[in-house]
## 1
Amino acid sequence: MKKPRLVLIGNGMAGVRTVEELLKIKPDHYDITIFGAEPHPNYNRILLSPVLAGEMTVQEIVLNELDWYKDNKITLHTGKQIKTIDRVKRKVIAEDGTEEAYDRLLIATGSTPFILPIPGNDLPGVIGYRDIKDTDEMIEAAKLHKHAVVIGGGLLGLEAANGLKLRGMDVTVVHLGPWLLERQLDEVAGKMLQKSLEDKGLKFLLQTQTEALIRGESGRVTAIRFKDGLQIPADLVVMAAGIRPNYSLAESSGIYCNRGIVVNDTMQTYDPKVYAVGECVSHRGIAYGLVAPLFEQAKVAANHLAGYGIGRYTGSVTSTKLKVTGIDLFSAGNYMGGEGTEEILLNDPYGGVYKKLVIKDNKLVGGVMYGDTADGPWYFQLLKDGRDIHDIRDQLIFGQSLVGDVGHAGKSKAADMPDSAEVCGCNGITKGVIVKAIKEKGLFTLDEVKKHTKAASSCGSCAGLVEQILASTIGGAYTPAASDKKPVCGCTEHSHKMVRDAIREQHLTSKEAVFKTLEWKTPNGCDKCRPAVNYYLISTWPHEAKDDPQSRFINERSHANIQKDGTYSVVPRMWGGLTTPNELRAIADAAEKYNVPTVKVTGGQRIDLLGVKKEDLPKMWADLNAAGMVSGHAYGKSIRTVKTCVGAEHCRFGTQLAMSMGVKLEKMLFDMYAPHKVKLAVSGCPRNCAEAGIKDVGIIGVDSGYEIYIAGNGGIKTEVAQFLCKVTSDEEVMEYSGAFLELYRQEGWYLERTCHYLERVGLDYVKGRILEDEEGRKALYAALLAALKDAKDPWATSREPEAIKQFIPIMVEA
Amino acid sequence: MSNWKLICKLEDIPPLGSRVVHWEERGKIAVFRTADDEVFALHDKCPHKGGPLSQGIVHGKRVTCPLHGWNIGLEDGQAVAPDVGGCKKFDIKVEGGEVFLAA
């Protein structure tokens, strides 16, 4: 069967990205032909500024080598501009006469620089700033000439000016607006930026209108004259006063345009066979000029071109980052404020730091940062998530590290770090390696960086820092997705929230049903989504959805922790950290009988037997079961331990019976699976010897009852637990703790610890659900107890005939 | 070649799962079963840091090493890009519901 033909006009970032997305989800569906007016393969236009500044070469910014087109059987016509689209005969015709028929057409003709309608605008030496050719021309001019004038103090203009200055020219920036980057910055930040750029040697003429460009004797431009009569020398004039969507081709073929090619939310034009993406498009009246929205468009267009019909593009909030080395600047959203908004300001002109956050209805709606942009991506994430910031408002301006988030993210300023600085401590990845990968491989997302460098792919605590490096390397191209919209993994477009909602609302009870209903792109998921889906199924429909061992990570499948040499560790449960001589004897016997090389006391008040062969596990468990011990779940995304102090049972300071409270909690929670591991502690008095302040749920006994703390963490990031409430009885401790853990079980995303969950939803929300809604709390508590009813010891059930197979190797003799 | 050794029944390997074969002179071999009942055999040693691939999660025609998450293609034993490396593969077949490894 003959394949349908797809023709792409425009060999740039938006168009080619659409083709890449298409090949990812439906390879071999189309015969693809690409026309590009430039003589180059697809390159990263965003990085033209570093090329101009001499920090990178043209070769380094190529995104798709010619081999890529060949490997994907794409016919590429470079240097061929399309002259006509014949929509009746469904073909495109290039200026040189090349014709190509299409079944689907994708237009991605981008934009053109706006050339001021003034006398002399066509003189040699007057250029826009758009492509490799312009960049080459500037580099050449810098070798031969002295005076450069850049018209336009926007992002592009400033990057051009900076580059030309670095190449030795004397550069003046002419700007119509009252301050630089007035579309991205407020006045204060704009002035600070101007000062830093002046320190670098740039000159500025603000609120200045250009009247004419003067021709010199050689025919080349020689000077520029302004409306106020001032005239200054200019051998090179760069017009960077904005871009205009390039839609003349589409318009002349009769496709409806209105300051851009008008598309709907599926990126389809008024001609259903024609799609358009990128800067040439007008979507809901907006033409985007930054790359992040274009990539979102590409994803949607690809999905519809593939015939899947899923996904709508609904517009983007954009952020800005200036790529001038040594200057840190970030802005996003509605940074100017206005009716109904409030502002939080931090202004330190001497320290060169300025931050402004704009808040509306307790939500962050915009912000500007100058001098210290380390928290830019974090603010941007808060903004996109629409997170209620009421509870962190008093510390918001000081950034993530003060409010508290993952690991050392936010504590180091990515832009200031030397290339040799280690970013990912787990895998030993330096900043230099990450930056190199981002540039050479053309990476745009955290996931891509993880895949290529392994940074942030183990414990994940440096993810924030990696995002900052990404943001400072590719600038405005970096846009995180809203947390509740991030796809679970490459197998699906759906987020954790969407998957979980579908499981609940459509009563899905098997992974097959989930994959089918949500149109998974892979036949049976991957190592990322299968465990998540399995958890959502069994936590949403306990006793109904069947647990799938093959969707669990090995530790949960074999009820023991895999070690680096492939052996396992065995940790019997010691309720509340209590044991008996009999149990210790059984542990000692087992350790000797199975030649356990290492016996270790854990941080969770129990004993770890390390180095056990897999085939010995069931036998060892049988011995431990016989002595009355059960699995400690030291291997699971599940309840781990309840650590206790000796409490009022023995301690002269104790106010409550910490040990017995701890045992009660641990028995209640036995075999509880959760999005991630869960640790509790109970201390008998405020001296808090059980370290309850860094547990998912921490109980501190006081004379009049118990204080309950939630969402602490002692691991990847040290996070002090937050005070939830005070209760008077043991029963209440069980009910409140249980209700909070069930809420986390139902709403936490897979692999999200309680501290991350709380950071996402806010303490106020949890208080609303647990403290202010008594009925709701009781229902959550009842749901937890119902889910954990009849919990069995996995060490015992693993010896049943079908389950034990995995532990028995198949022996083959010669 | 053509000398096949009976290993186990197909049903002894869970779909999307695996078993380990201890073969005296060859060491440990991981045998995998996909959702479509295809079987594959690889040296049970991840090219990255020697992790036991038999303990990984099987998806499509890949297995993810349990130690550091490398993905290995079951058909060729090669790591999935951007990772690079490979492990030895063995000929394996199913006949009449029984699994045979090439001796």
Note: Chain B has a mean pLDDT of 93.
## 2
Amino acid sequence: MKVQLAKLAHARSGDKGDTANVGLIALRDEIYPLLVREITPERVKEHFRGICKGKVERFELPNLGALNFLLHESLGGGGTLSLMTDAQGKTFSTALLRMEIEISQAEAQSLGFDPNFRV
Amino acid sequence: MKQKVRIAAGQGFWGDLPEAPVRQVEGGPIDYLMLDYLAEVTMSIMQKQRSRDPGAGYARDFVPLMKQILPACIERNIRITANAGGVNVAGCAAAVKDIALELGLGGKVRLGLVSGDDIMAKLDELLARGIELRNMDNGAPLSTVRDRIQSANVYLGAAPMLEALNRGAQIVITGRATDTGLTLAPLMHEFGWSADDWNKIAAGTIAGHIIECGAQCSGGNCQFEWRSVPNLADVGFPIVEAAPDGTFVITKHEGTGGWVTIPSVKEQLVYEMGDPHEYITPDCIADFTTIQLGYEGRDRVRVSGIEGRPATETFKVSISYSAGYKAVGTLVYSWPDAYDKAQAADKILRARLERLGLKFDQILTEFVGANATHGPLAGKPSPDLPEVQLRVGVRSENRSAVERFTKEIAPLVLTGPPGVTGFAGGRPKVEEIVAYWPALIPKREINPIVDLIEV
């Protein structure tokens, strides 16, 4: 079944120059291993195609149940150079939460999701 | 030695809620008030202000704030750390001194001034000696923008602020200094932490990171169950309650709005994070993967377990340089076919710019209401969108090209697609771009200066 990341995690994003960072935080500790397995840098790069022009790096913070992504070359030059509404990458967090991942019925059930509904 | 020190955050940036520091002082017991005023490009704005008026160049809001809270701070021995000095620490201190005298606090206030961060005057000498100040993001040497530089300041750490506190400063005013240092220095002063007690220095640094954006860790901009965050109209700014062993609690004054929860603190911890194993400041390298969070009651999150490593041999330098001009024009298109009309208008505008032969380094079109924030991830806009804002930005080294662009927006109202409004603001403004150039410099090149002024 398909699950949208917004049902699994919350997030905050910001900027460093032309790089956006997205901290993705599991809503519950049990969800964190699923994020580690599914939300790979490659998937994030693919999700942000047309937006992130550089590489995507990922760092793990098991102590916070969080992953940190760096999306290079994503902010139109960054800082004051950028012409973007969101030059600071503040909404990259919610953009990542749009991602949908496929998980098994059994895993969905074990995480407390009702398998009869698309969550 | 105190067993508990309370440091309250009063400003997360220059322009944050003006009442927040007042409420931190009046809303309950605190020992320190820390105020972060300097964003990356703030120094260049201040540099410009100072070139027009030698008495300017610092966070002016700080002075009326002192007028409001200084008597209470003196009475209750609340000390203040603030990077309000900008490019004119002495000017800021002089203004605060005048206010203190006016309030009848003569003989009762000692100001600590931290400077030495400004390396503008010795840039050429540094470059001549082979210190290239390469851009940390793209590796380019500073010589490529040398003639366009407007300001150059080192991020000083906690050490000079600590010296000012040790010498009895009631108010520490710095120029460019790290926001984390504003919290760390008081903890080092109160608990006598040595500068190479890396775990404790890292703990104080992370405490500073959590509160440096003000209410962003206490319910503001909180994505986790945002509808349930209580009473944001009256949001309480965060307070660190630290213990000598380097553990601390994040909390806020009783009766204030917002919340301090594990999710709200986690969101701030990951904000603007790079490699979590090495959060580098002038004071240490903090390891965010060691942080442990737990509840210690309502609106009280305990932070412990933090480990750190020795500081690097370099300071970060914040250099600002002039990087051309930009302007952004907007128009609003209404139902029906709002998005189609906005797209058609953009095509017409671009054809006209083309015909005029204007060259831009970049033209960016966004459709606010359809895809300005999430781009292609937003999917295809509904044909029933009630309205869409066309937003076109241009950037160029050539001011006259940008100027010419600004004259092409309003005419679209009478010469483009129908159902358009939102041009009442007049022509877009041409803005000079002051860009940010991060670099590193060996610490041995920098001599922080601490001065004390008795009021």
Note: Chain B has twelve helices and 19 strands.
